[in-house]
Amino acid sequence: MSKVIIGAAVSADGFIADRNDGVGPLFDWYFNGPQELPAAPNQYRPKDGYRPAAASADFLRATWASVGATIMGRRLFDLTDGWGGKPAVGDHVFVVTHRSPGDWPSRYPDAPFHFVTGGLEEAVARAKQAAGDRDVSMPPGDLAGQAISAGLVDQIDMYVVPVLFGDGIRFFGEHKIPTTMLNNPRIVESDRVTHLSYDVRPQ
């Protein structure tokens, strides 16, 4: 059965970026090892892919292969210009928005991006249908906080980097989330990052 998984790099004090959307050293571990890890090319990724440590490479290969669709919010979509029309992971992207960008079809006519104006629950339903037997990925931030609050998340993956930001954008954004019980994590220790995968206990 398809799962909804929130996953991303995060500082040890719970931030995914600073207040200016800078990620500082949060992504350094993608490039501190010998393992070649190709990634879908776009203007926001290195042409030669990533080079993480072996444990991180194994974790990412398995994670990326399991994803069939991604859900993102309009803010991240605008910040990245929709990753240039190429999904970061999976085959389809569902953007939760109040209004579709008017110029997108002409700029990226073949991009597998779908704009959902009916809300998060509709986006999750459509993403699961598109993913089939694979999972649905969701970046952290306010949309992730809404998804947790609505009981729509099955798993949380935190790639914890040993750095303290002190302030910034929180993993679940500014959305106030309810107390949510998680199972004990599956842990992958790597170089300058620890991958923690928590299953969310049913509410």
UniProtKB/TrEMBL annotation:
Family matches, as Pfam families: RibD_C
SUPFAM superfamilies tied to this protein: Dihydrofolate reductase-like
InterPro entries associated with the record: DHFR-like_dom_sf, RibDG_C
Boundaries of every Bacterial bifunctional deaminase-reductase C-terminal domain copy: 3-182
Domain of life: Bacteria
The protein, known as: Dihydrofolate reductase family protein
Protein's organism: Sphaerisporangium rhizosphaerae
